[in-house]
Amino acid sequence: MQKPLEIALHRNVVLQIDSPAPSIKVENWLRGEPLTTFEPGKVYIIEFWATWCGPCVDGMSHLMQLQEKYRDSGVEIVGVAASEAAPTADEARSKLDAWLTEKFSNLNYRMAFDSTGEMKKLWMEPSFSFTIPTSFVVDRDAHIAFIGGPTKLDEVLPKVLNGSWRASDQAKAADRERIEKGETHAREKALKKPIYDKLGPAMQTEDWKTALSAIEEGITLLPDNFDFRVTHAHLLLHKMRDMEAGLPVMRQFVRDAIDRESKHWIYYGLFLLFAPCFDYAGLPSAERFAMGEELSKHIVALPQGDGSKFMSYPMVAQYYHKSGNKDRAIELVEQALKALDGPEPISNDLKQHLLPQLLQALANYKGEKVCHGTICVAPQKDSPNVNGVAEEQT
After folding, report:
1. What is the pTM of this model?
2. Which CATH class is domain 263-377?
3. Are the C-beta atoms of 188 and 221 separated by less than 8 Å?
4. What is the residue extent of each domain of the chain?
5. 4-167, superfamily in CATH?
6. Cβ 269 vs Cβ 295: under 8 Å
7. Do 64 and 108 touch, CB atoms closer than 8 A?
8. How far is CA 158 from CA 40, 44, 155, 270, 390, in A?
9. Better-scored residue on pLDDT, 213 or 352
10. Predicted confidence (pLDDT) per residue in 367-386, tens digit
11. SS3 call for 339
12. Which of 86, 215, 310, 389 has the lowest CB atom count within 10 Å?
């Protein structure tokens, strides 16, 4: 029997370069005039985004700049808010409208709202686009010219406007790579669904044996899946407290995190070993701290890049503090705080997420109130909010 993905491919409904652009079907136009058809001779950027998506919000000013820069060249940008979170569609629309008024009162491009899922079905799903922000560039003949992240628009848009992009080898190669990744993601998602269908209820009822069985089934199918791997270690170490089975799993997770040089894997390795919410009484102290040292030294040595390495610094500092090196813990937190205001680009979303954690850690380690700009934090007992359940990542 053919799976839905295979049926879609067989019917040639994959949305890609040169495909006719789907229609625009939205519930409301919150900013600008409604767009019913793509006008010949114009180029449109259809941007899927949400207010809760940090990179989406960070990129809105740039989209406004592009709209201003290329308006006379026939470019029209259309924001599509199709993923807003609220109990009802009316509440989502009202919150979005108020948010736009507060944050972007001078928005210079159209903004559409859709909670029916119709726009996702027409645009996101057929193109294997699983994350936001995602930009679709519609060419002058109402055909798709580009699908991808909005950070690529500076490079792509001038070439679309001069007519050289769609036929180029670069465009075709990028689209092939995008579709291949999308197909892989879609197949993995289909494989993961029955695992999550078993795992979710088992975790809610604290049926750890069933949860473990589901996770082990998932790892057999997808051995490198991050969510399965971290939940496997979490279940064994912190729910079932099976150190005989859990320690080898944790050791392998640490090795793989370092081999991958993955900031995300390293963070969760440290989290499983040093988050204050867990009881480590049954975990051999020497081995726990040895793994912590290995992970900590590796993440600190990685280049700053986009600043995401600093996500691990609260946990790295926790390792050093617990190992008795309070000065090193304070030093690392202060380094991270300094980097947030440094010249290298760090997204506002990351800054807002990290700043409270870093300040609280610094106050706790110093045992006194600390301030950063206008924000001051007093010391208190560590009590982070923790969720050890693997969740489907879109």
Report:
1. 0.69
2. mainly alpha
3. no
4. 4-167, 263-377
5. Glutaredoxin (3.40.30.10)
6. yes
7. yes
8. 18, 13, 7, 44, 42
9. 213
10. 999 988 888 899 887 544 33
11. helix
12. 86
